[in-house]
Design brief:
3 strands, 209 residues, single chain, 3 domains, 57% helix, globular
Length: 209
């Protein structure tokens, strides 16, 4: 079973009743004849009508149709539901769905509608056109963003403790916001780059016996 199908099944199986109900409503909105199967004739108009143009094609339908029956079963549609709701990205080089590890431009990473992401193949082969050159994979970014955010939270707590010691009242929240605004996006990514540089240095120091 494809990894995304496994993830979608896991989410649905462990979801609360309201979330499962949302999934069923999504399925029913595509299943026009209510026969509990989604045909390509039902799938394509729905996807185009709702703006999911990169998934509105037969190859993507066939990817979802893991059972190879020519019609999507309920759990296969739940994979589609998961892909849409989770905001899964598509490669900006080849337009393929990014199913696992991918590379993101760190200069564009936190721009809501302007992120630039590449599959491993397009990144390795430089099969893309983009003005920036700083890319990191999604796992490195996630782990190092967690470190950067934890450090920022620690600074906020120290600042609030200092204020409390000096008798400053009700200033914690507002000053936390000030601190957040003072810390630029580049300072967060500086932590990421430093971690990568450290790892690269450690790797280059290794020797094969």
């Amino acid at each position: 079973m494809d990894e995304l199908h496994k993830i979608a099944r896991a989410y649905y199986t462990t979801a609360n009743e309201e979330s499962k109900s949302q999934g069923r409503r999504f399925f029913n909105s595509i299943d026009h004849d209510s026969n509990r199967r989604i045909t390509i004739q039902e799938y394509l108009p729905y996807m185009k009508r709702n703006g999911h143009t990169k998934m509105a094609n037969r190859p993507f339908f066939e990817y979802l149709n893991e059972s190879r029956t020519g019609q999507l079963e309920f759990m296969e549609v739940m994979t589609l539901f998961y892909i849409i709701k989770s905001g899964r990205k598509f490669c900006d080089g080849c337009d393929g769905l990014l199913k696992g590890t991918f590379f993101s431009c760190t200069d564009c990473f936190d721009l809501d509608d302007e992120s630039f992401n590449l599959c491993s193949e397009c990144f390795t082969e430089s099969s893309y056109v983009h003005p920036h050159k700083h890319f990191l994979d999604n796992y490195v970014i996630l782990e190092n963003m967690k470190v950067a955010l934890a450090e920022r939270e620690q600074e906020i707590r120290k600042m609030e403790a200092a204020m409390a010691n000096h008798g400053v009242q009700n200033a914690g929240a507002s000053d936390a916001i000030v601190l957040y605004n003072q810390r630029s996006r580049s300072s967060v990514f500086a932590t990421v780059f430093q971690a990568v540089a450290t790892a690269a240095t450690a790797f280059s120091a290794c020797t094969i016996m």
